[in-house]
Design a protein that fits this description.
Structural class: alpha+beta
Strand content: 15-25%
Order of helices and strands: HHHHHHEEEEEEEEHEEHHHH
Number of helices: 11
Helix content: 40-55%
Largest sheet: 8 strands, mixed
Distance between the termini: 28 Å
Number of strands: 10
């Protein structure tokens, strides 16, 4: 399989890198609530439409294009909830919704008019996707009860995509607006300056259109695996940028009359960081190849393997980057410490290393 970027993909990567270059600096200056580049800018560039199907006004792109973008967003420490809302939410709506409702929702998401936050995980159930939130029929509509946790990108979202157990045991995907008086979100900032929320549903009355469709846990896992790969790419971009910043710092910071980069032990440290980051890229390429040709179990093994490889190495690489900077690496004004915080949050977003190691072992028999 040829992993060289096509001319179009080169343009996508270069354009994204230029556009996002000032993201962290702008955020430090306080330009915008969640970064220097906003959701509208992402929509104008067509990034939100990348995975939306063409019949709904999208570009019908593939996962490789998304990974290129995600990698650049990681490099830039972008705080926009791209993976949660443009990858995972778009995939869920495309999977479950039907007819005109599907076209309307996907079109609005692709244009940036509406943004949704997926609510899949629940308190006390770690990363299990079988919902305990229940939806019972109420008049012509439904009544929703239960709680969801770690809802990424909930702040500013127009609605939540909630998985819930129906009376017949099927899993339904519901769209609930945050303005509903019986929805109680507890919003909080994550240590990487992002946002999430725990949400409680207390007998929430929803109309018949709130049920987008019926799905299965396996189908949700399939969509989630695309988001997991995108998060691995985001993490790879963040780590490679952290290594670059560290290598540049060691060339300019002097001690005992010479650059720190002249000390052999520090050179070895940076080389190990490069090697570890390269091994993550190899694992990501392997997962992409399996995605193109493998069945469901093969894809799941490849994604979990990539996840374990990525986040097993990530904290070591980012931690070493902070360590080699000394005290300045701990300050909030300097970017390198933010890369460490980002990988710590990412690792727990869609299943931690222990979860994916267990999933891989189970699939391997």
């Amino acid at each position: 399989m040829d992993f060289a970027l096509s001319p179009e993909q080169d343009m996508l990567r270069d354009g994204a890198r230029r556009y996002l270059a000032d993201d962290f600096a702008a955020r430090r200056r306080g330009d915008g609530a969640a970064g220097g580049t906003g959701w509208r800018g992402y929509a104008d560039l067509g990034w939100l439409a990348l995975l939306a199907p063409e019949d709904a006004g999208g570009l019908g792109g593939d996962i490789e294009d998304v990974l290129i973008l995600a990698e650049e967003m990681g490099r830039a420490l972008s705080l926009q909830p791209y993976i949660a809302s443009a990858v995972l939410a778009t995939g869920l709506v495309d999977l479950v919704a039907a007819g005109q409702q599907r076209l309307d929702l996907l079109g609005a998401m692709a244009s940036g008019e509406r943004r949704f936050a997926p609510a899949l995980y629940e308190p006390g159930r770690r990363y299990r996707l079988e919902p305990e939130v229940r939806a019972v029929t109420s008049g012509a509509g439904y009544r929703l009860s239960g709680a969801k946790s770690l809802v990424a990108g909930a702040a500013g979202a127009d609605g939540l995509l909630v998985t819930a157990l129906l009376g017949d045991g099927a899993v339904g995907l519901f769209l609930a607006t945050m303005e509903n008086a019986a929805i109680f979100p507890t919003r909080y900032a994550t240590i990487d300056d992002g946002n999430a929320a725990d949400v409680r549903f207390e007998q929430v009355e929803l109309g018949p259109d709130a049920l987008l469709g019926i799905t299965t846990v396996d189908a949700v896992e399939d969509v989630l695996d695309e988001a997991r790969l995108a998060l691995c790419a985001d993490t790879l971009g963040a780590l490679e940028r952290a290594v670059e910043i560290t290598a540049d710092y060691l060339k300019t910071r002097t001690q005992f009359g010479q650059p720190l980069a002249n000390f052999q032990a520090l050179q070895h440290g940076v080389v190990e960081m490069y090697i570890d980051a390269d091994s993550i890229r190899s694992s990501l390429y392997n997962a992409i190849a399996v995605f193109d040709r493998g069945g469901r179990e093969d894809r799941r093994r490849a994604v979990s393997s990539c996840w374990v490889k990525t986040f097993d190495a990530a904290k070591g690489i980012a931690g070493m980057a902070v360590h080699l900077h000394g005290g300045i690496g701990m300050t909030t004004e300097y970017p390198v410490g933010h890369y460490l915080r980002r990988v710590m949050v990412s690792e727990r977003s869609f299943g931690d290393v222990e979860h994916h190691l267990a999933r891989y072992m189970e699939l391997a028999g």
